[in-house]
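Chain X:
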Amino acid sequence: MAAAAAVTSPAVEVDQISKLRSQVAKLAQISDNEKEGFIRLVSRYLSGEEEKIEWEKIKTPTDEVVVPYADLAPLGEDTKELLDKLVVLKLNGGLGTTMGCTGPKSVIEVRNGLTFLDLIVRQIESMNNKYDCKVPLVLMNSFNTHDDTIEIVRKYSDSNIDIHIFNQSQYPRMVAEDLTPWPINGRTDKDGWYPPGHGDVFPALLNSGKLDELLAQGKEYVFIANSDNLGATVDLKILNHLVKNQTEYCMEVTPKTLADVKGGTLISYEGRVQLLEIAQVPEQYVSEFKSIEKFKIFNTNNLWVNLKAIKRLVEADALKMEIIPNPKEVDGVKVLQLETAAGAAIRFFDRAIGANVPRSRFLPVKATSDLLLVQSDLYTLEDGFVIRNPARVNPANPSIDLGPEFKKVGNFLKRLKSIPSIIDLDSLKVSGDVWFGSGIILKGKVIIESKQGEKLEVPDDSVIENKVVKSVEDI
């Protein structure tokens, strides 16, 4: 979400930045590059330089701008040569705290005892073996995940894959009332700092030295994706299209459903392709933005970017993505962190496009309800790839709504003796103290809710179709 800053007068702004610069100079924990990046971000925020979107100038992108998947350039002969230009970068800075886990989210077990990271490594390794290529895996960590990730990747040392690790920037949280860096006020532990969003991937890649290292190896493109999106696998058609057309940036978009109405979308704006987020939309047009008739696609955050273009634009300080102010309260103190998003960079690259991809390329696991989907018989696992079961007739996945009792992975696993069969399920809503036996089959629309203060155990081998279940007698 993007939002404009509170604008200050030029004189006040100069004084604030001068004061901020002297405060930041005292922060020994971060590099000079991080200090400069932070000061530039705060300066832009204070100046209020954010451009307002003029609604009447928005145009629907043509098929040349957002290319239908079927229209991507046909593959040539040499797959190895194509893949040897590629780097896979996974955004690995998030913790699994929202699902009740400690450490990086990428080490949550997804299926068959394998974690997100295990699956990613297997995918790339099987591709390297199949095509005799050298696609490396790059992990962008935050200071929250860095130490754990270094330990975790040791188990892949015998794999046929080069793994690179670098840290994204570490910026000080600011006390909201006067924008003083919190560590200056004594908050020097991890809570005094924050990673400034995945838009930081571009400067952090350059500042870490990894960008020059990859360019020296002859790499040309990076595929950037969230580590928790199981659909974000290497797609040869997209890579081939970019190489043939010398495209500098490609964002994968996919058709919106009613579940995605708040997602950012691509628009044509003053001759360039641009990401439009809901927070940029004037209030009177929000319902129009959410319409799946007018804005039919949304950003999956699967991004393909030319490495030389990243270097050119970062060195010119040209990537001025919309600022996302993120206010928080930590231990009773109101703090502000300023972030940017990688998708918003699309408008700064030449020959940038969207690719309208199948929904299968967007399979994020944000909650235990998503975990139920990917652990079920809707999917199988092959060489690290999560493959959709062709026996599912409905192209959309069932909607799953699990109550707070299932929110943490540990509780989710305890309450399900085995994952139910959901091949023929349309929707599932579970609330209260519900426990599932093994071998259960769910079909159609199912609601299971225990009565207040009572435990409801769904027996082994139950078949529940188009029912509201409040007691065992209802099954």
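Chain Y:
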Amino acid sequence: MASAPPPLRVLCIHGYRQNGGSFREKTGALRKLLKKHAELVHVDAPHRVAAAAAARSAPEEEELDRSADDDSRGWWFSDVQARTFDARQRSEKSLGLDASVSAVRDAVKDLGPFDGILGFSQGAALVPMLCSLHQQNQEPEFRFRFAIVVAGFRSACEEHQKFYDAALSIPSLHVFGLEDRVIPAAMSRELLPSFRDPQVLTHPGGHFVPAASAHRQTYHDFLKRFQ
């Protein structure tokens, strides 16, 4: 009898005001659902979100992670002066993205190799940026074979629009909730044209990573393509 293929290794990129540890806890059900197919490896964003800055976050960000602890982190700030992030905030410049790209590069070097990448919320918005850098031959280390984007969106920052110039060829699964009040489904749908042939999984809930039995087959069918 042929042995089962080894699980795929997936780098996990948490949301704003989370960290690798808290996101690992929140993806416990997903890890259980995918245990035969994928090993999820969680990393921290390099930027700490100060308590005062968190208090100034937009109301919807308060819902983003009610359990955020003293080690709240983010991948970039949309408000350069206040060092806060709001997915809807339009700005010309951001703060911190280069350090986050370096942090992911270090994670790939120290913890990889990885077959794929999974991002949630702000982390899901970072994923297409990383994939774009690889596709543009700027980051050869980001050789991910697939991407899972949960509650993703296009960055509203003007300097980030270069990441959406060409559709990404990496196979992708986009997951979002129809009742998400933090990143509405419409924002997640706006990201879809940035990928070629994106696969979509919607769920009736809000801002979280779904892992019910009803979602098992979609996840499994997507991952089996790479085992």
